[in-house]
Amino acid sequence: MLLTIASIVFAIKISTGMIVGIGLIAGGALFSYISYRIVKSTKEMIKNCSGACTGKVIDYYNDTDHEGHRIYIPVVQYVVGGTEYTIEGSQSHLEENLPPIGEILQILYNPQNPNQAYTATNFSAEKIISTMFIITGIILFLVGFFILFFSL
Fold this sequence. Notes:
The chain has 3 helices and 5 strands. It has helices at 2-11, 16-48, 124-151, and strands at 51-64, 70-80, 83-88, 104-110, 113-119. Helix 2 (16-48) packs antiparallel against helix 3 (124-151). The longest helix is centred in the N-terminal third of the chain and has 33 residues, at 16-48. The two termini are 25 Å apart.
């Protein structure tokens, strides 16, 4: 059976355009799948976090992103059922865009697992990233299909 598949593949004249087209289609599918997973994970987090409370910015820490740029991340403390929890708020590249220490923020948390929580503005990066991934995926898929179609 393997020999039959190999002989069929070699019987078809495979061009560079076909390989590039198939690669771009696969890349487009991969980017689209990653976008789907980001959106699904975000929606699941929003669905699970039905509890609401307020939290207080207690500190900041800074780090570097994947490109080596400095990012600032607020640490937010909140209380559920008498137990204190802390989460990281939305990161920023500009220190002046962060909420000041002591500011009160809206927190949404999972009633079954209060450690799972987010600030009300926490998903802006996920929305941007998933949108970029889906657009990239569609473009790669369409370009790959176009190249594959015209290389046949």
